[in-house]
Amino acid sequence: MSTPVIDVRGLVKEFPNGTRALSGVDLQVTAGETVVLLGANGSGKSTLQKCLTKLVRPTSGTVEVLGTEVCTARKREISALRKDVGVVFQKINLVRELSVLTNVIHGSLGRVSSSRNWFACSARSEQREEAMEALERVGLAHVAGRRVEQLSGGQQQRVAIARMLMQQPRVVLADEPVAALDPRAGRAVMDLLWEVTEEQGLTLICTLHQLEIARDYGSRVVALRDGQIDMDTHMSRVAEEELEGLYTAEDEVLHAL
């Protein structure tokens, strides 16, 4: 078996108020693997993802990502790691008043440190061409000059994926990337995310809440319950009632509101 690019062992996270979000999580992910992360609200999904890049500092255990021991790494090492980890957020986090092309060029700032890349009009031709290629890949080259606020939610999430591609990451963390989209736009974004990560051989961990989408797109599924791994298997081996059992009736009602 190949060496994992993500290796989490005995991970515990306890917050100052006494809440234990993670209780001894073990997770290994190999290069190029796609993992769907499931669990009810409060199960520890987001905390686990944030621990991978030290956005949340673990209480104990070890977290190694792309050869960096996250728990003991210094600020410079964490900054270098984050350049190799692309993130697709539920809240899209684009600069709505700026052009689509400028937003995508921003994805290069971690590897091409230049104030010229803050705006498309001043960016170097190499970055402009690369950003246009990324937009072409997500089917939005024709709107490069528009302001982001003029696009639909689904289009904005595709711009966010283009920005992530511009980063040239090795690992992608997607945190409920379609939760705010209508079903049709959501599936278009999921198709695109799966396609580009496969094309480039990227490692993907995608947190989802919608069971139907998880069933359709998931290969390996890792489920958390009360801060612990409750399931780690191939999606084809999971019965529907097992998936539904991950969520309480109260949680499903809250998520639907």
Automatic annotation (TrEMBL):
Keywords: ATP-binding, Cell membrane, Membrane, Nucleotide-binding, Translocase, Transport. Signal peptide: none annotated. The keyword Nucleotide-binding applies. Residues 6-251 form the ABC transporter domain. InterPro entries: AAA+_ATPase, ABC_transporter-like_ATP-bd, ABC_transporter-like_CS, ABC_transpr_PhnC, MetN_ABC_transporter-like, P-loop_NTPase. One of its GO terms (cellular component) is membrane. It comes from the Bacteria. GO terms for molecular function: ABC-type phosphonate transporter activity; ATP binding; ATP hydrolysis activity. NCBIfam families: ABC_phnC. PANTHER family: AMINO ACID IMPORT ATP-BINDING PROTEIN (PTHR43166), PHOSPHONATES IMPORT ATP-BINDING PROTEIN PHNC (PTHR43166:SF6). This is Phosphate-import ATP-binding protein PhnC. The gene is phnC.
